[in-house]
Design a protein that fits this description.
Number of strands: 7
Strand order of the largest sheet: 5-4-3-6-7
Shape: globular
Order of helices and strands: HHEEEHEHEHEEH
CATH superfamily of the largest domain: Glutaredoxin
Helix content: 25-40%
Radius of gyration: 19 Å
């Protein structure tokens, strides 16, 4: 009986380690195949003081990033999103940030402190650190990013902090931006 319990304990431990390894793998964090090809959920937002809908950006590749000023990984990835915006903007693509910030002052301060250069919108419906727009996408943690192709289809979902200007990500965007 003692041997059976040991084997069970080792089996449970091995399963736990296996699950952790799968979730830690870059391929898991950098793309969720199950939503690839689905149409990006449309919503209203304001960019540069003008009301638009996400669908108005069809024809562009959109990097839709859900973030918040109170989120340490979001703070960490802001500079690389700025660099990505600079890298892709001349090729009919853009980063669009949607912030889950209830406090307009904290939101504005973050934009200034981090030197955010990509268009960003504060979801005014945010309550208790939860953005209704992000929830409509199924986002349960931030940062979370959806890469939307020129036809309005989700090409990739990225969970968690990312180095958006890494050689791998630049190669990914080069390939995506070369597609019609």
């Amino acid at each position: 009986m003692g041997m059976g319990r040991r084997l069970l304990a080792w089996g449970v431990l091995a399963l736990g380690i296996g699950i952790i390894v799968v979730f830690a793998m870059p391929s898991y964090r950098q793309g969720e195949a199950s939503i690839a090809g689905t149409t990006a959920r449309d919503f209203s937002l304001e960019l540069s003081g003008k009301p638009i809908r996400l669908s108005d950006l069809r024809g562009k590749v959109v990097v839709l990033d859900f973030w918040a000023s109170w989120c340490p990984p979001c703070v960490d990835e802001a500079p690389s999103l700025n660099r990505l915006q600079k890298y892709i903007e001349s090729r009919n693509a853009m980063v669009v940030g949607v912030a889950a910030d209830e406090d307009p002052f904290a939101f504005s301060k973050f934009l200034i402190d981090q030197g955010v250069t990509f268009p960003t919108y504060r979801d005014p419906g945010t309550k208790e650190h939860s953005s209704p727009i992000a929830l409509s996408y199924g986002t349960s943690m931030i940062p979370e990013t959806y890469i939307i192709d020129r036809h309005g289809k989700i090409a990739r979902k990225v969970i968690g902090r990312q180095e958006w200007d890494s050689p791998d990500m630049r190669a990914y965007f080069d390939a995506l931006l070369a597609q019609n």
